[in-house]
Amino acid sequence: MSALKKQLHVYLFEMNCVSHIIHGLWVHPTNHRHRFNELSYWTELAQLLEHGTFDGVFLADVIGTYDGFRESADAALREGVQIPSNDPLLVIPAMAAVTRNLGFGATFSTTYEPPFAFARRASTLDHLTNGRFAWNIVTSYLPNAARNFGLEGEVPHDDRYVIADEYLDVLYKLWEGSWDDDAVIQDRERRVYTDPTKVRYINHVGPQFKVAGPHLCQPSRQRTPVLYQATGSHAGKEFAARHAEAVFTGGMNAQAVRANIADMRARAMRHGRKATDIKFISGAGIITGKTDADVAKKYEEYRRLISVEGRLAHSMSRIDYTKYPRAERLADIIARKDPGYDQIGPRFKPEQTIGEVLDQLGGINYGRYFVAGTPNVVADAIEKWLDEDDLDGINLVQYHSYDTARDFIEYVVPELRRRGRFREAYNQGETLRERFFGAGHSRLPDYHYGARYRDPAKLKEPFRPLSVPAPETVGELSMHEQRERGTSSASPQIPPRTNPPAIPTAPSARAGGASQTAVTAA
Ligand SMILES: Cc1cc2nc3c(=O)[nH]c(=O)nc-3n(C[C@H](O)[C@H](O)[C@H](O)COP(=O)(O)O)c2cc1C
Q1: Number of domains forming the structure of the chain
Q2: 184 and 265: one domain?
């Protein structure tokens, strides 16, 4: 066992709902997913994951519903696709109470609610978990989410990152700059709880937000929670280069993933950070068991239950593949320009038949980051992901709760440990940031953008928005961006904001951007 081998970080990918990402499997007779409303679902899960020395549990979230498929929410509701869903933050204290080391990542959007209240919730969670909290920064992609917060439609893609950047600026001021470490003195003799000279207003005034402070919470162990983000777009990667400490990434092959990771590391360095300051995590599907026969049985059991309609609802597909005969070819649909034909993306080829598309949608294979096999086979694949793709970890997608996690713990963890690829035990009492970056790294590094506000003088300086350079090539734009911009002929700059601040002050304060399609599964 070599100490130089990269060890795997593992989170369990969760959501406070019945059907998060693999749809249809909640009906499996022994699946516990329908128990997500019960506190005991979460406490049992947390104890199981801590027993397996997982890095943490990672909670996705959306604040709207998937109502694009067949122009209604019916399919999402029938299939339980992320609705009903509960608040991800509120189950964390319960899980923290029954564990000592497990980490907790939770998703919260920067687009619709102003930052002050979230700063407080996050600090509270970092206190209650004793420094085990991470935040997945999302800007929200559902048109329905915009309509839930008083807008007519979505804020355009790149503008969402402009808002997010200022949102983060406010948070850093509150988390890093508003209170000194020694502000709370708890001096009973002198009857002084907090030394007022060590707490300050932040008085942030920017294009989007005006926040006075002071922060209402005293400094927590990490102050700023570990900052996660998922992105593939140019604007999103620039945002990650300034802010993120862990990025969800993916791709069809090792070469594509490596290139993507190298690109993000280079961008981070341009922001004065180290290449290794960002960890890269991918969603991964793993089906394992003691023997090949066990694995095959589980694979078939899960595959049989996968819901194509759930998948179409989740992807907000404007094309209803289920209504065509199986022999029909996509090329015919494209030639006729049937509604939604322009959405037939890179996943499918024009020469494919509807039958092939439906089989693909009903499949279980997660691409490069899917493996079904005995522990040796799974560990071989994981070693490749770590060494060939340059990944740091995985977000384990669940087919079955709790069997997916249980199987990983029972079969894969011992094999990874044998190979020196997974921790034998937790470093007791470490913060979640230390788990990624080593002992003594509980806080953001001094050279991270957010750390600048530890200097009170910096709080008085005007907000410095992230400047996003024009992408060098169209290839730097995600498919999603290229579609929005009409490929290379559109301006590569962030569009000038013609509307007032994105804070939803009044219904219809802003006209919506072009309605986007949720291409990435939350
Ligand atoms: C693994 C993973 C998890 C995600 N989780 C969420 C989520 O919980 N909520 C959400 O609104 N978006 C989620 N997203 C979507 C991202 O926040 C983001 O919208 C997407 O990656 C596209 O970003 P881009 O437009 O910058 O490329 C997730 C994406 C990935 C890849």
Answers
A1: 2
A2: yes
Note whether 349 and 254 are same-domain residues: no
Q: Are residues 371 and 504 in the same domain?
A: yes
* Residues 323 and 290 both lie in one domain: no
Query: What is the rounded CA–CA span in Å between residue 122 and residue 105?
Result: 11
Any domain includes 4: no
> Which ligand 1 atom is the nearest neighbour of the CA of 478?
27
Residue 351 resides in a domain: yes
Q: What is the pLDDT along the chain (522 residues), one digit of tens a residue?
A: 445 899 999 999 999 999 999 999 999 999 999 999 999 999 999 999 999 999 999 999 999 999 999 999 999 999 999 999 999 999 999 999 999 999 999 999 999 999 999 999 999 999 999 999 999 999 999 999 999 999 999 999 999 999 999 999 999 999 999 999 999 999 999 999 999 999 999 999 999 999 999 999 999 999 999 999 999 999 999 999 999 999 999 888 999 999 999 999 999 999 999 999 999 999 999 999 999 999 999 999 999 999 999 999 999 999 999 999 999 999 999 999 998 898 887 789 999 999 999 999 999 876 899 999 999 999 999 999 999 999 999 999 999 999 999 999 999 999 999 999 999 999 999 999 999 999 999 999 999 999 999 999 999 999 999 988 887 654 555 444 544 444 322 222 223 333 333 433 333 323 232 232 222 333
Domain boundary among 344, 361, 378: 361
Please tell me the pTM assigned to this model. Answer: 0.91
Q: Is there a contact between 433 and 442 (Cβ–Cβ < 8 Å)?
A: yes
Q: Are residues 356 and 207 in the same domain?
A: no
Residues 78 and 207 in one domain: yes
Does residue 289 share a domain with residue 152? Answer: yes
Let me know if residue 482 belongs to a domain: no
CA of 331 to the centre of ligand 1 (A): 30
Contact residues of ligand 1, CB 6 A cut-off: 60-62, 107, 138, 140-141, 157, 230-233, 236, 248, 283, 395, 478, 480, 520, 522
Residues belonging to the chain: 522
End-to-end CA distance of the chain: 36
Has residue 515 been placed in a domain? no
All residues at 6 or more sequence positions from 498 whose CB lies less than 8 Å from its CB, including other chains: none
Residue 263 and residue 381 in one domain: yes
Q: Which residues face 246 on adjacent strands?
A: 228, 279
Nearest residue by C-alpha to atom 8 in ligand 1: 60
Rounded distance between C-alpha atoms, residue 53 and residue 103, angstroms: 10
Ligand 1 centroid–CA 130 distance in Å is 27
How many angstroms separate the Cα of 44 from the Cα of each of 38, 88, 180, 311, 416?
10, 16, 38, 28, 24
Provide the residue range defining the domain that includes 333: 308-361
Assign residue 206 the CATH number of its domain: 3.20.20.30
- Distance between alpha carbon 131 and the CA centroid of its chain, in Å? 19
Q: Pick the last residue of a domain from 361, 380, 404.
A: 361
C-alpha distance from residue 400 to each of 13, 32, 200, 405, 424 (Å): 12, 8, 48, 8, 25
